[in-house]
TrEMBL record:
<feature type="transmembrane region" description="Helical">
    <location>
        <begin position="169"/>
        <end position="190"/>
    </location>
</feature>
<keyword id="KW-1133">Transmembrane helix</keyword>
<feature type="transmembrane region" description="Helical">
    <location>
        <begin position="124"/>
        <end position="149"/>
    </location>
</feature>
<keyword id="KW-0812">Transmembrane</keyword>
<keyword id="KW-0472">Membrane</keyword>
<feature type="transmembrane region" description="Helical">
    <location>
        <begin position="197"/>
        <end position="218"/>
    </location>
</feature>
<feature type="transmembrane region" description="Helical">
    <location>
        <begin position="81"/>
        <end position="103"/>
    </location>
</feature>
<protein>
    <recommendedName>
        <fullName>ABC-2 family transporter protein</fullName>
    </recommendedName>
</protein>
<feature type="transmembrane region" description="Helical">
    <location>
        <begin position="41"/>
        <end position="61"/>
    </location>
</feature>
<feature type="transmembrane region" description="Helical">
    <location>
        <begin position="246"/>
        <end position="267"/>
    </location>
</feature>
Length: 272
């Protein structure tokens, strides 16, 4: 009769391998830690929140001092319109944030350690997109709600002031945070594709702020261009020729999905 015995240390080695197995959950946790450790990212989040609130307060005060009548939900002299005034500028900051989430690792060389720890790479891309988008959603949703409450308090003397319970108001506020979250995913994808902060930001500024101008030349395709489609989620009602709120956000999200898939393909096919 023969007996078999494990080699010394084999059981411990297997235990260690099992305990250190790479999972999407662990990669998400690691990316969350890295995001919180990056001061530039945190500052961009803080400035984004402050810019939304400050723009809303400025718009509300200007409207009140000018004694302008309310223009209905989404108008410049309406609390909702005031609350969303800063979204366009904040989108610029969010583009920078999403790009830096990826390119900061390439500029410092940290990506080598990251891909050594996670050889399959794709979990890292998914985690970066999810962590950054969730952080932006939470921060900008809080900013939008604070902005609306602040603007409504400043403009409370106006008759017919929009309230949070009015049709479409809450959807528009939540939609602004979703809109900026999709922008974040798009920025992460471009950062991964181009691996250059300047190059990715330039490409995104062109896509988000220059390409929509073509809508004036091509009215039929204008509503389907990135920013035009995404902005529909923040409108009350659907003007003729524009997409409905959720369809518009879906089209904008499709741009982000396509960009993220392209980034995933590039990440798996080229050298680290």
């Amino acid at each position: 009769m023969t007996t078999t015995t494990d080699r010394p240390g084999t059981g411990a080695a297997v235990g260690r391998a099992s305990s250190t197995r790479v999972t999407q959950r662990r990669v998400l946790a690691a990316e969350g830690i890295k995001l919180r450790a990056q001061r530039s990212i945190l500052w961009l989040l803080v400035i984004s929140v402050l810019s939304i609130v400050a723009a809303a307060l400025s718009s509300a005060l200007t409207s009140t001092l000018a004694d302008a009548p309310p223009e209905g939900a989404g108008g410049a002299s309406d609390p909702l319109g005031a609350a969303l005034t800063g979204v366009s500028f904040t989108q610029v900051l969010i583009v920078a944030l999403g790009v830096l989430v990826v390119t900061s690792e390439y500029s410092t060389g940290l990506f080598r350690a990251t891909f050594t720890a996670v050889p399959k790479r794709l979990p890292v891309l998914w985690a970066k997109a999810i962590v950054a988008a969730v952080a932006v959603f939470v921060a900008t949703l809080a900013a939008a709600l604070i902005s609306f409450v602040t603007a409504r308090a400043v403009m409370s003397s106006a008759d017919g002031t929009t309230s949070l319970g009015d049709p479409g108001v809450l959807r528009a506020l939540v939609g602004s945070a979703l809109y900026l979250s999709v922008t974040t995913i798009l920025a992460v994808a471009f950062g991964s594709l181009l691996r250059s902060a300047i190059g990715a930001m330039a490409a995104l500024f062109g896509l988000l702020f220059v390409v929509p101008l073509l809508g004036q030349l091509l009215p039929e395709t204008g509503p389907y261009l990135p920013n035009n489609a995404g902005a529909a989620i923040m409108r009350i009602g659907s003007p003729e020729g524009s997409l409905s709120p959720w369809v518009g956000l879906g089209v904008f999200g499709l741009y982000a999905v396509v960009a993220l898939i392209a980034a995933a393909v590039a990440l798996t096919r080229r050298d680290a």
